[in-house]
Amino acid sequence: MGNEEKLKSILIATAKEYGLSLSPSDVVLERSKDPAHGDYATNLALRYGKQLGMNPRAFATEFAAKLNDSAIDKVEVAGPGFINFFLHADAMTTVLADVFRLGKDYGRRPSKGVKVNVEFFSANPTGDIHLGHTRIGAFGDSLAETLIWAGYDVTREYYVNDCGNQVEHLGHSLRCRYHELYGEPLELGDDDYHGVDLIDIAKSIREKFGDKYLVDNEESHDFFIRYGIDAELAKIKAELTNFRIHFDRFSYESDIRKDGRIEKTIDELKEYTYVDQGATYLKTSAFLDDKDRPIIKSNGQYTYFMPDIAYHYDKMSRGFDLLIDVLGADHHGYINRMKSALAMKGYSPDALEVDLVQMVKTYRDGEEVKMSKRTGKAISHHELVEEVGVDAVRYLFVERSPSTHLDFDYNLALEQSSANPVYYAQYAHARCCSLLNLGEDIGIDESGSLLGNEQETAILKHIADFGNAIEGAARERAPYRISAYIHTLAGLVHEFYAHNRVIDRENLPLTRSRLALVKAAKITLSNALGILGVSSPEKM
Questions:
Q1: CATH top-level class for 3-87?
Q2: In degrees rounded to 5, what are phi and psi of residue 518?
Q3: Which of 80, 95, 233, 350 has the most CB atoms in a 10 Å sphere around its CB?
Q4: What span, in angstroms and rounded, lies between the C-alpha atoms of 341 and 285?
Q5: Does residue 376 have a pLDDT over 70?
Q6: What is the CATH number of domain 417-531?
């Protein structure tokens, strides 16, 4: 148990004496920025003093007098009722035992028994991935991993839109490219797909099937759609693998439409439907939406909303406690209509959360770059990753809140200096590896018994805070808080290295303790970077 967890358990136990039933999330415990104010501080007395009819400072004074543990050196009351904790020096090093015992699992929280579905990316299988998808992918995957580390049972899911107008246009476009190969050019419409990638797909059809599908009939129509979807989705899956994203499940809209599932869903919702000018509407305004939404057009075709409703019902039927959809910023109006649809089925609107991800702009040499010099089109996911690397894209695309616009700087991503946050973090890990290699023959005192100066204590505190950082990032759906944690830890490692002689062969006992600190920092950095899908190089 880390120091923060231990202190929280002490505070919770003491609060029970006053009739307060608190959970760990109710207890705010912060690391003190100034060592003169102790190691940790809590505002518990300020939050609950008035509830008990007591002056907060008087409550804090009485409460602090009850706090007693071998890890606590002293307790002070400050200001209007803050309680400051000073820990014994040896209490700070107890975290090392946890790090070394758990290793690659250090920071993982116990299972919460909560099943979460995180659906993200879900790019239409009709062409190249754009940078909006890249950011959604980086955020969604890091969010899923953060939740896993926080103890949630997470399923990553990709929803394949393989029905509707976009795949009709894909099939027609591929058919045109196929006919071109036989000297029978067909005209592409404005809404068709003009990407040259379809030429390569058409060539693969010719190689496998010859001229079998030159005849225009229902069989060839369906063939071009399905072949195009499968080929484009295979490309997307390859890009995702390279980007270190894996999905536990791919769900298809075509499956949602099978066996009358949508018709059955509409029948279940009939008390909330009405017809206006030939179109069928759902009474979402009776719940959270600002207006009612059509689910069947006047021509009898479903709107995209209707299969989405059936899909979300399908997810809930699989036993998930929470659905998280990670979508582009243009889906803002989608949130309340889907929450309303869930409420119609008896689910809590809170069973669905939607994270909206803003778009990306790219800059080079201070100028915005909209088009690729190589292709003459918008910069693609593949091109960006190929040029600056997976690590830089993953880290820089997730270090800011998804609700803010992202300006991606090529120059910064490629710069090998402390100005580049991913380089700064990875260099700290590589520095730890180098020190451990240099001191390999000296050995490590895993108790860290001689640690205690300002830089060493700061690193120990931050390492001890890793689990809480994960909990906070998961609770706020904010994997960018892991980035902030990494940046701080990397800075503390660099500062420690600058102010201390780590390998001192004239003082081997101190060296062994410091190597233990370095090893713990290395493990924690690696685990934190891994949550973001970023590698931990041993040399740079």
A1: alpha beta
A2: -60, -45
A3: 95
A4: 10
A5: no
A6: 1.10.730.10
Residue closest to 193 by CA, chosen among 147, 131, 126: 126
pTM over 0.85: yes
Q: What secondary structure letter does DSSP report for 39? A: S
Domain boundaries, the chain: 3-87, 128-158+246-357, 165-242, 417-531
Q: Which residue has the higher pLDDT, 186 or 482?
A: 482
Q: Is there a shared CATH topology between the 3-87 domain and the 128-158+246-357 domain?
A: no
pLDDT band at 451 (very low <50, low <70, confident <90, very high): very high
Give the full edge-to-edge strand order of the sheet including 279-282.
Answer: 273-276, 279-282, 293-296
C-alpha to C-alpha distance for 155 and 353, rounded to whole angstroms: 15
At 466, list the tokens.
Answer: 């890793």
Q: Is pLDDT of 43 > 70?
A: yes
What whole-number distance in Å separates Cα of residue 94 and Cα of residue 539?
Answer: 29
Class of domain 128-158+246-357: alpha beta
Give CA separation, 79 vs 41, 48, 57, 65, in Å: 12, 16, 8, 16
DSSP string over 142-197: HHHHHHHHTT-EEEEEEEE--SSHHHHHHHHHHHHHHHHTTT---PPPTTS---TH
pLDDT tens-digit readout, 277-306: 999 999 999 999 999 999 999 999 999 999
